[in-house]
Each structure stands twice: as C-alpha cells, then as structure tokens.
Write a structure and sequence with these properties.
homotrimer; 369 residues; alpha+beta; 7-stranded antiparallel β-sheet; globular
C-alpha cells in the first residue's frame, strides 16, 4: 500500500550553491562518485534479442559493449582490447557470429569476454590467455531495460532498486516496444533537468498545452526521499497526454482503475526520468557531457498489440511531449546561464519544490557532502 | 589650461612580460581586479529613452540588464532571477510595460529591481519579498554614455573620472547620435589594442591613408599618466579624417578655433578609446573575451542636425576608420602571435611609445604589481 | 658491417601506462623535454635554394623562419621581432630581397639575423642594435633535409646522429627531389604512430595489399636500441611497393645488390619515419598537436633523372602508401580511443613487437623516467 503526500520543501530550503552547476572539478567528482558508481539505464533488452547481438552504449567517457551470449545472458564489457588497448568495435549495433576480434592484431574474444586466441602469443614466456579476458562491468535486465554499473564492486541491483522492483508491474514494461526516439542536446547541467522534472510550479506558465489536459495542482507523491522520487498527476477523465488530449489507443493491458486517469512521474537517480501513462511509457535517459551540457535520449514505448494495428500512430504522444520537452529545456538553459553569474546566490524553494530539496539532499549525500 | 608634452618613454622602458599576454590566470585576475572593479562604457542613454526601455550589456561573463525606470532614472541589474537563478531576459533590447517577469515561475520585479510578486511564496515560512530584489550594480550616465561598475563597493564615478568630467564639453557628446556601428573580433589581447592606439610610431608604415591627412609626427599629449592617456594630432587645414580627406559636414556646434584642425585621441582605462574629431566622435569599446581575443565595438556619432540633412552620409568617416581599424587589428594579431613564442623577451620602447609605458605602469598598478 | 637480429620484446614487456597517451601534463612535458630539445626534421634544403629564400616551419607552438643567407648558409630564427614581439612573416614560403622587415614599425634584420635598422631608436639612451638580433636556433642540413633544434644549448647534430651519418649513403638522398606530399590529421597520440610503424604483427590483418608484395615475416633489424630503430623487409623479387607491385622506374643510382629487393624502415626519434625503397624514399614527419592528435606530413622523393622522363608518374607509389597510411591511422585512432578508457591497463607485447619495447624505453629515458 503506497503512502501519498505533497512533500513540501522544508522551511529555509534553498537551491544549490553555484559551483555545483558551473565547476569542472565538481563535474569530474560527480563522474567518479555518481555516474561511475551507480546503476545507469543504457538501453533495451530487445535491442540485443539473439546470442551474438551487440549494442554500444556511451557512458560519459566510456564506450561499453553490450552483448548477448549464446546462453541468452546479456553481458557488458569495456570496449577495448587487452593487447594494445585498441577499440574493438565502432558500429553502434550489430552481430558477432562467433567471437569478438580486435581489428588491429586479431586477438579474439568469446561472447563471454574470455580471450580465445592471440596470434603468436604462445611464444611469449608466461603468457596465458586466461589472464586477459575483456574488462567486464555489471549488467542487469529489469523491466525490459538494460542497466549497467561501472563500479569495481557495485551495489547489487536488487538492493539499490528495492523500492521500485515490483512497483511498476501494471505497466508490464518488459512487453512494451519502442515507438519513437528523439535525442536532445541541452546546454544545461544535468541536475537542472532533474529539478525541472520534479515540480509543476512552472507548468501553468511554461506548459499551457500540458495543464489543459493534466491540472497542474493535482496529484501526490509516493516517493519523496532518497534516489527515487515522484508520484502521480491527474489526466482529465477519458483523456490522454497527446496533442489533442484524446487517443484511440486503449490503456495498457495491466493498467486498471484510477491508473487510467493518472500519469506517474518518477526520477531514478542519476540518469532516468520515467513517465508512466495509461497508454504508453516515456523514458528520458540523461547523459552529462560537461558541467553545462547534457545529452537527453527520450523514448516512447507502446503495447506491441497496439503497434500492430494498421492505424497505429505514436506521433500524437511524441509531438505533445517533444513540445513540452523543448519548453523545459529552454528554461533549463536560461537557468544554466543565470546560475553561472557571479551575482547568483541560492534562492528559496516554494512548497511545490519539495522534491527538488529532496533531490539536492540525495545528491549531496552521494558526493559525501 | 591644459599642459602639453610629447611624453617620451623613460630610459630602459620595456614591453610587458609574456604572461600578461598569454596566461589564462593573469586574464582571470584582470577580470577580477580590473574589469569587475572599474567603470565601463556599455552603451548610450538614447538606447533606453523611455521608462520601461531596456538594453542588455555583456560585461565579460556577465549579462547586465540596463533599464530606465518610470522616474527616468537608468538602473543596472544582473540578469537573473532571485528564485532559481534563471536568466530573466534574452532580447538584446526592448520594453517592459510594467514589470520584469521571470520566464520560469513568473516571479515579477519592478523597474527599480524590487520583487513585486512571487507566486505561492507567501506559504513559505519566513519568506519576505523585501529580501529578494534583483542584484543591482552601479550605473551612471555621462556625456550621453551609460557606464556601469560591477564592484560591490565601487569608487564614485565623479572621483574616478575627475580629470575628464568637463574636458570634452565643446563636443557636446550628450547631444550626438549614433550614425554607424561595426563590431570586430580581434585575435589579440586587449592590452595590445590599447598599446596600438597609444602611438603613431607605426602610422607611416601601416596607415598611408591616415598620415596623408594627419601628419604622424604632429601633436602633443595632455594626459600622460594614470588611467586616462592621450592628446591631439593635427588634421590638414580645412580637411577631415575621411576617405577623401574632405567633408561637407560642418564642425560640431561647440568645436571652435584650433580644435577644428585637431583630432583628440584618448584611452579611458580599461575599455574605451575616444576619438574626438571636429565633425564627429568615434568610440571603441573593448571587451576581452579571452587572453588572446577581444571584441571591439566601434561607433561613430554625429550632430543630429547634420544627420537630418537629406545628403547626410556617415560612410566617408566610417570607411576611413574601418580601413584604419583593420590595419591596426592585423598588426595586433601578429603581435599576439609573436609574444606567445617561448623566445619572446620584453623589447625596448621608442620615445614615441611613452604612452605605452604609462599604460603599462597604470595596468600593473591596477593589478597591485 | 651491420648486425641484424629479430630483436624480440623482452619477457614481461608491456605497453605504456595510460597517462602517456592521455594526460595533458605529460604532453607539455614531452614538448619541453623532447620536442624542444631534440633535432627535428622540418623540410628540405631545396625549398630554400637561393640566398634570401625562406620557409616557415611550425614546430609545435613555435613558428620558425628558415632562411638561406647570401653566403649560402641556411639559418633558423624564431619568427618574431625584438621590439614589440610582432610576428615577422606569415607567408609559408618566399624570398627576402635584402632584409627581413617587421610589418609593425619596420625594424629591419639581415639574413644572418642581425638588427640592421630600427627607426628612431638612436634617440633612446643605451640602445644598441647589437643587443637585438633575431632569436636564433640551431639548424643543420643533412641528406638534403633541414634539421632544427630549439634547445638553448643543443647536442651537436653529428653526435646525436652518429649512428646514421653514413648509413644511407647508397640512396644519395641529397640528390633526390620531392615527387608528392600528403598531410594527414590523425586523432591519436604521436607515440602510437611510432609504435604502429615499428611492427608488422598487424600487417597481414590490416595491409593485405602490402603483404602481397612484401612478406610480413621477412627481414631483420639492424638498429634495435636507442633513438634510431629499424631494419629491412623483403620486396618480392623484381617488384616494387606500388599499387601493382611493379614499376618502370629503375633503382636509385646508388642502390645495388640485395638492397634492390629490400625496403628499409627506420624511426628517427622523435619526429621522422624514414622508408628507403629501391626506387624512391618516403619520409613521414610527425608533429604532435595535442595529446590525442598528430599532424603527419608524408613526402615521396625520387631521382631527378627519373622525374625528368616524360612518362614519370609517382602516383603508383603514392597511392600504395596513402592506402597503407590510412589503414594505419585508422587503427592508431582506435587505439587512442581504447587506451583513454578508465579500464585500460598495459598489455603484453608479442615477440614481433620488440622495437616497440625499445621505443618505449628510449622515450621514458628521454623523460628521465
């Protein structure tokens, strides 16, 4: 049974200090202590359905090779050879028939990362193929998504994601399929995008189309502390978050009752925004590229039964959110500009910004501050 | 009564050491100790004639909002909201009917910078609009120009500009109006542009057109120490500094006697070059963008009576100086390249380079060196 | 009498640590301790045949002016004036009729670098033209190439190049002339290019065209320790390293016997790869531009007698090596990407990579490590 509350910001809560949005050293520390330590969403299981299928994921500065082995297990490797360090693979997606061969000297690895063959290396005293498997990193499949963790000794996924593990069952996300994807290059710090997602105080001003179909004062939060934050807002009865506010799509098979008139918004620290609609699911992956720049990958997922219909068209949902996304990125970029001023001082949070204060607390905790 | 002299460089005077032209740390220190401390010319009063009119000025990394309030007083604010730090305004010039509203959550400020309204903030314990006016900075109008000072406790303008306050009265610059503007992107340190302006030792070689109309050995200085440096040079009798050396424009109303055959050149540390001609005034604003890059805004001002004539054409003056400007920027860029060499060592100043030695002394004094 | 051996890598030899390929501080140290200390090939004597002819060379951040004086001696100067530091010359190649004049104030230098005239400087107390010659650097002509050394007190060329001085006599390189030149912009550390050149372990995989005409297991090294490394490989009898494997060109006049079926490959630390073919010579100059970027100038030289023939066409050799070059740059770029990963660890060298281990040793010695 979920608890709901409005989760107001505590008295005196203020925005973060300037350096968290502008300092390259803070950004480097975030990479080390957050992005290279936490579980990150990097793609979908259905992108590598068969043994030998692979996918490249760019995780900050790292190229990660996601491969399904012959037993059906998905694995993740740092994309470089153990011999001279050469990048193994440059195609974003593809299939390895048997093995992964380095393009420089043909050292050859199995789909489980083991070194199978290294030409002429038998002559080298003390050389043993067992000492040179690909550098692996942790990978988990959950709700149809691929999650990697680049830490040397990562926290188990089940422990890290415990509050979420069964929470999204009604949407059966494993069964959904990609309907559309848009990538955005946003000139703002990644935290400003999280903060923007965590409040609807701005909605009536910035998103006139959104508030027409989903009242900006509606809803409640059911997660208001820790790495996962969010709750629901109402959708007008019988409506949908699309350009017209209507849809011909049915609700997803498992979505029943009040969930048919709600949209659930969750931020999953540090790289996912998860938006669960009655008839589709939208996911933002956030990828920091610099202290003042973030790449956003926005994907829309639908029921394959709906997608199989001849009149299926995802664009009513895509265009609605593409407009809303761009409205948000614009104010995030304006905020990046302003917080970079020597005159910037932390400002006071409104009650509606309670989740921002919670996000900031979790963020500072992750940095050990 | 002005004193005049040739102001030769002292024996042994040498160019500045390399780091002043190439080191990013020196550049950061200049920003803090010079550009964020001194009075800077950022525009003209007539750009914001009415209450509510505004103008954006870019002062190094800072966006400054220049607004005329309803009482007619011009004011300057850092361009960011006190709530989340969002940039308030992005249009370079415009009009606020009543108030300045933040585009993110609609916090609203008066033209005097006071916070008028902040939605939902009354609910927040301890919140008082009086605590959150826009961050202001000092602004003065003088000779028709807008001057800002971003320091926390700026030196009063009248004290800083005491040697100049009544000096330019004959040109009645408040009455003049903009005839033309050209922006330049120069790949050289800002000090090389000041130094270039401060001597005519290079004129016979670089500016054959200029020396035809204004003898390069003529003239004298009347300011040769401190932040303001310069003096006059002769213009050929009956002539003007134009493409043809002639003009149909009359001298400016207040310019009489010998001033009708002189051009006065003054450098106003740290961002203005002021060139007073009998029939027009030219102003260079210098904006350092990096240790090796400077944006220059060059403006030509004329008597509005002359501008009202059907045959008024500023281009004879504009094209003459545009050519001369480009000749100067080219050698400044060559000098930036050379002083960046590991082989560069300070070189000796000629007598004609006395004002450069004075500029360097003032500059080092400003840095506390 | 030369000694030959296969020069296998010692047991346990490994690739360099990551920072040598990715760290900007290491790159700055390499500039200071290697490139600004060692003899570097910057061009050909025939580019400045006559007194007064000049050529600009870009040596990392430095512009160097190479001039032949009236006595026929080639000289090298840092390309800046001793007065205000202005770049003297921007044309890549040209001729000074008498003197080198600064474009800013016309200070004028002789072809030997002495200051001949400095306008108005006689008036300056204590000024003596003898104190302000151009900053010179060491220059030597050897085998038709121009070699500069920017160190304050350079090791004599004859001592530094002792192992090579008479080694290449048969190819009479002084007599050869440029047939073609291609510049490449390679996104890889300069050492990866040296290492790539030093082994043919990759040849069968990367260069199918090359190994068809020159067996990849053939040959032996005759220099396997120190700054100069290399040896020969076989060319198929009667063949040549061209697109077709054949040529109508005769062997170079001095190339006799077994040298007519060999290609000699030498790396000359730190900026030359020298490839001596029976019928032509190919030279790569390597110019580090950043820790992960190198400019390569590849030149092909031929016998002027052959070049004078009406059917002379260098493109069979040029296109063969242009293809091979691009194959190499590609894997060097892939290796730069991989060694930049946080997962990179040094890998084991194969026996065929003995010269790489020797190169790494010499490199570390140069850095005092």
């Amino acid at each position: 049974m979920l608890a709901f509350q409005k989760a107001a910001a505590p008295a005196g809560a203020q925005t973060l200090a300037q350096s968290f949005y502008t300092c390259a050293k803070v950004f480097a520390r975030e990479a080390e202590q957050i992005f290279y330590q936490q579980w990150l969403c990097v793609g979908r299981s259905e992108q590598i359905p068969q043994g030998g299928d692979y996918l490249l994921a760019q995780v900050l500065a790292e190229s990660i090779l996601l491969v399904r082995d012959k037993s059906g297990r998905a694995r993740a490797f740092f994309n470089l050879c153990r011999h001279r360090g050469t990048r193994l693979c440059t195609e974003v997606q593809g299939h390895f028939p048997q093995a992964i061969a380095c393009p420089y000297h043909a050292w050859s690895y199995g789909l489980d990362g083991s070194l199978l063959a290294a030409r002429h290396m038998r002559e080298v005293e003390g050389f043993d193929v067992a000492d040179y498997p690909l550098h692996a990193c942790a990978l988990v499949e959950w709700e149809g998504f691929l999650w990697v963790n680049l830490a040397g000794d990562p926290q188990p996924f089940a422990a890290a994601f415990a509050p979420l593990l069964e929470r999204f069952t009604p949407w059966k996300m494993t069964d959904l399929r990609l309907g559309h994807r848009i990538d955005y290059d946003v000139r703002a710090n990644w935290k400003l995008l999280f903060q923007n997602y965590a409040e609807c105080y701005h909605c009536s001003l910035i998103h006139p189309q959104l508030v027409k179909h989903s009242p900006d004062q509606s809803g409640c939060n059911d997660l208001w502390e820790g790495p996962f934050l969010g709750g629901y807002m109402d959708i007008n009865p019988g409506g949908s978050l699309t350009v017209t506010g209507q849809t011909t799509r049915s609700a997803l098979p498992g979505v029943q009752g009040e969930n048919r008139e709600r949209v659930y918004y969750y931020s999953l620290f540090p790289n996912v925004l998860l938006s669960l609609h009655p008839d589709y699911v939208m996911v933002h992956q956030l990828w920091p590229e610099a202290v003042d720049r973030t790449r956003v990958v926005c994907s829309w997922f639908f029921d394959p039964m709906a997608m199989a219909k001849p009149d299926f068209d995802p664009l009513d949902a895509v265009e609605f959110w593409d407009l809303t996304n761009r409205q948000d990125w614009h104010v995030c970029e304006l905020t990046q500009q302003g917080v970079s001023s020597r005159a910037y001082t932390p400002g006071p949070y409104a009650h509606q910004e309670g989740l921002l204060a919670a996000f900031d607390r979790e963020y500072l905790r992750m940095l050990g501050l």
